[in-house]
Amino acid sequence: MQDEQLQHERLKVFLGYASGVGKSFRMLDEGRRRRARGQDVVIGAIQQDLPAELVHLLETIEVIPLKQIGSGAAMDVEAILRRRPQVCLVDGVAFNNPPGSKNLQRWQDVEELLAAGIIVITSLNLQHIEERREAVERITGKHVKETVPERFLYNADEIVIVDVPPELLLERAGQPSTTAHSPAGTPRRLSALREIALLLAAEVVDRQLEDYLLAHGIEPLWGTQERILVCLSRGANAHAMIASGRRNANRFHGELFTVYIRHDQLSEKDESTLQEQLMEAQQVEAHTATLDGYDPVEALMDFARTHRITQIFVGHPSRVRWWDRFLGGPLDRLIRAAEGIDVRVFPH
Amino acid sequence: MGETSNRVSDFDSETQSLAPSTQNLTMMESTSHKRGRLKVYLGFAAGVGKTYQMLEDAHELVRRGVDVGIGYLEPHGRKATIAQALGLELIPRCKMQYRGAVFEEMNMQAILERHPEVCVVDELPHTNVPGCSHLKRWECVLELLDAGIDVMTTMNIQHLESLNDQVRDMTGVRVRETIPDWVMKQADEVVMVDLTPRALLNRLERGVVYPPEKAQRALQNFFKESTLVALREIALRQTAHEVEIRQVTLPESTTEVTATVAEESSTGGSDFGGLTDRILVYITEHPSTAMLIRRGRRVADYVQADCFAIFVHAELDFNALPTAKREAVERHLNFARNLHIETRVLQGQDIAITLLEFARLHNITQLFMVRPQYSPWEGFIGRNLIHRIVRDAHDMQVTIVAERQPVRRE
After folding, report:
1. Which domains does chain B have, with CATH numbers?
2. Rounded to two decimals, what is the model's pTM?
3. Maximum alpha-carbon separation in chain A
4. Which of B246, B390, B397 faces A331 most closely, judged by CB atoms?
């Protein structure tokens, strides 16, 4: 069982929202526990200024020294490959290698180890993720040069969030022996970073869930995330619906989709209104699509199912003769078809 | 940003006056001393290490000179957890006789007398044995907080009331012991205790979490990998939400930008200009109403809206309703009150008109209704009413809320 499991996993990342949350501790502790269970564990790279209480963990695990390159040092990938451990711990994965190294960055070294079949356990600070750098810099005001692409995280088999309340982090920072780095900022700033990290982890987990469900042929129906679909139509108050969709998606940290269903010829005026609406949707970062379908309800439901939609927003059908057609009208049919999906009807 | 908290407490007191039956749930009596702080360790399944993490933090507090007492600990026979409790003071539990068996519960009197600065209380969703002063452990915890004692506690995401339906859909299990969302809201801190599902499954297989027989049963429902991954995602999102709503209470940062981040998440923005959203949940005897109430509560919490619930009957007297219907409605009204939703019962010949008049009078912006049951023979309940309401409610949003689908068995 153990071996079978080892074959599956390759990369495990401990993700933290700031320095001092205990990522390195968790990484080393995991190394220690795996060693106790009989796995062959080495340390490929570890930060120099390790907090005092972590040093004793180091003593139990073999360290492969860094290689001097010019005035700097890099992880000694060749030495590790020669040593061929089952598991290699790599700290500071966003580290830039000194000029003259084979790879520019340490995360690329890690990919070499992974390719050679070595399990890598690593720790990563949110601020080093390329795609999140801007958001983090807005909060911390600090510019970070060393980054790892987000796909590195998505390719990880396992990601663990190391969550600590900011208060505790600041208290720990007050005790110099506890950690080498002091975290940046006030409780509110740290809290904002913490939120970003939690949501990022949720994204990664969502991706894993989707992969798992697909691989096992299970139709992904569970609303682990709110996914809102705004359905544009002639006469609907598109502006209000898109704004509300955006706000709700934000509040629930969900996704926003906007579709227009083309089912009859549009006048020039309607066509240009529609283009404006789709543009407005794109401006608020909604995924937009135009659907062609003989049956608008069917086209909408097809889209909703494939995109795991949890809520559909539609405009109030207020045209005069509409009530006559209500029984069996499009809204009625939509509510009927939308099994498991909420339908929200908007006023004009 | 004090506005948010004011609104919440106003709303609570309103609920209290309207619903005397739930007074025991809202122990907000003003006390002279400072209220204790509540810290929740949130996990996504048994065995992720909530209790272990909590005890580790308790040790850290003791090292810093804080007076910590364990009010209740449930180590489930896990060796590492038991070892972790060594050196911490255990406040003796009380023994309760019930149906010929002896149960051990948290000893409230002993804790209040001992009055530690911080009390460790494991498993917040626990239901007490009959005969205890409170029905639920979370009620005990509120009493400790009222007495000025800080509390550290643990719970799993599946016990949060507003997620009850979603959890049933994912696991096939209806969780009975739940924590109302407003209790969670009282926590000063929520910490996610994370572990990868695979590591958890390994623990389960190694017998760390449960004894073998129980582990086998656990693997059947909650501990399927896909279920664990989904529960974990929900726990991460919930923690992010808890972190977000608490940002406004944190000390201001110096940068302008951060203030904007927090502001965006805390104020402004309703679908109706500057007004706050006001959600009205339409209560019926329909069994999906409990789900509707949970959803209304959850949406209201997320968009920071006020939430109300209403039942309308055409009969002249509420008591003239058929017994089964009356009982179902009463159950739903009670449930709404327990979630701190203000409820009303109205009489009106035409239900749609009465409902919409009430909604307009109270500036309702969103109406929540249960999706009608469709049968292959078109004979479904509530369809005409829903259609009339959708047609006539041209000045508010109407949300037809669907039961999310039960899980397909793997």
Report:
1. 31-247 (3.40.50.300), 270-401 (3.40.50.620)
2. 0.76
3. 83
4. B390
